[in-house]
Amino acid sequence: MKTETKTEQSPNLARRSFLRYAGAGIAGVGVLAAASCHKDNRVMPTTGIDIGAQGDLAILNYAYALEQLEAAFYIQVAATPYSGITGVETSLLTDIRDHEVGHREFFKTALGSNAIQALTPDFSSIDFSSRAKVLAAAQAFEDTGVTAYNGAGYLIKDAGYLTLAGKIVSVEARHASYIRNLLNPGSFADSTVLDANGMDKQQTIPQVLAIANTYLKTKVNASNYGYVSF
Predict the structure, then answer these.
(1) Counted domains in the chain
(2) Cβ–Cβ under 8 Å, residues 164 and 26
(3) Among the residues of 80-127, which ranges form H helices?
(4) Second label for 209, Cα 20 to 30 Å away, from 47, 71, 109, 215?
């Protein structure tokens, strides 16, 4: 039997930790999209922080990286409100901030010593004084988050992890719907985010990281994972 060290938890131990913290601010029930798979030949960068090569733990670190980015964004939004922000918008965007911080801390705690390091965001391209710019960025983050969970769901082997990922993606979808409706009423579930069957779209790990890395000083890659993708 492999001896556990301070720097590496066994998958079973990580799963118990993940399940133990499942009630810590995670709400809702969701189902990840399913589709047939094919090989993704996209070349991944090899610099920066690698999510790892150990099965489900790598996928959890992938989610942790995205939640770090979303939490950092909404913390900034709350700290520097855009011009003309309403009381209702302030309240709801603060709620989203708290959800994303909860998601971030959830993964950090569950992963323990297997967690990747804290990432440094780069939001220099976002004008936080502009409502339109902030909400457009929020829409991009939320829509990407939903497609990321949907696209990586089939890679999760443990049923417990998959259930919990479904709960998180349902919350992200609620955020996405609210933000999209703020920008363009009635667009909460239009054809840009749903496919012809009325299902949320998905993106591969390389597609999502290409987007996320534009807002990160510390880049993230999955070059050691060796995944297949939709």
Answers:
(1) 1
(2) yes
(3) 87-111
(4) 109
Tell me whether residue 80 is in a domain.
no
The pLDDT tens digits for 99-149 are: 999 999 999 998 999 999 999 999 999 999 999 999 999 999 999 999 999
Task: Indicate the residue type of 7.
Answer: T
> Beta-carbon neighbour count of residue 84 at 10 Å?
9
Inter-CA distances, 117 with 52, 69, 89, 105, 217, Å = 12, 12, 32, 13, 13
Which residues does residue 5 pair with via DSSP β-bridges, in sequence order? 8
Paired with 229 in beta bridges are 38
User: Whole-structure pTM over 0.90, yes or no?
Assistant: no
Tokens describing residue 33: 């999209």
